[in-house]
Amino acid sequence: GIQVEQSPPDLILQEGANSTLRCNFSDSVNNLQWFHQNPWGQLINLFYIPSGTKQNGRLSATTVATERYSLLYISSSQTTDSGVYFCAVGGATGNQFYFGTGTSLTVIP
Amino acid sequence: DTEVTQTPKHLVMGMTNKKSLKCEQHMGHRAMYWYKQKAKKPPELMFVYSYEKLSINESVPSRFSPECPNSSLLNLHLHALQPEDSALYLCASSLGRWGHGNQPQHFGDGTRLSIL
A5-45: per-residue pLDDT in tens? Predict the structure, then answer.
């Protein structure tokens, strides 16, 4: 299967700071999604981004498929951004969906 | 992703009980999934249904029994569970064409299951 590695595993930020989360994957993908899991367990879809760049408010994401990585950029972080961020990919054969190990983000006031 | 609805939100059951988890979506998706998530771990795939047929079973113990009565509904029947089965159970759906992994998956809010 496809190996998905996320870094850093843990991140503590002061409110208002910016951060970049990284997702590396070991093979070609046709699907890449970024999720935010809040402290209540809800898995919220942030971006569907198999390639290119997207922005949604304070969040943006870039996937460079040829180099097998994706970045999630959080600007002006807020305490509500706390939680775990997962990257997940679907392979070119289209028969599996692999989650990364996640980045646990804590934003302190 | 509240377009996928899971019930109940919380469930506490004894090891001898029989219960069911329910998942519903009305987006016209034809692939539906069950995931299990333990604390501080990523979700792990359990089952995949494609066009109401079981297409992937990730070696899940028989005490978990999935059912897909129609294209909108997915159930997970539970019987004789063990304490280690306590976890968050997530349901997801996707369009279902061209394979399962290469389309966006939409997740429900999950059922938090505790086994006494």
Answer: 999 999 999 999 999 999 999 998 888 999 999 988 999 99
- Tokens 């990284």 correspond to what residue? A22
In angstroms, what separates the C-alpha of B15 from chain A's closest C-alpha? 24
Distance, in Å, from the CA atom of B80 to the CA atom of B16, rounded to the nearest integer, reads 5
Q: Is the pLDDT of residue B1 over 50?
A: no
The DSSP-derived string for B46-63 is EEEEETTEEEEE-S--TT
CA dist., res. B25 & res. B58, Å (int): 23
Q: Using CA coordinates, name the residue in chain B closest to A33.
A: B104
DSSP reduced 3-state for B26: coil
β-pairing, B53-57 with B64-70? unpaired
Distance, in Å, from the CA atom of B90 to the CA atom of B43, rounded to the nearest integer, reads: 8
Nearest-CB residue to B101 (from A35, A86, A96)? A96
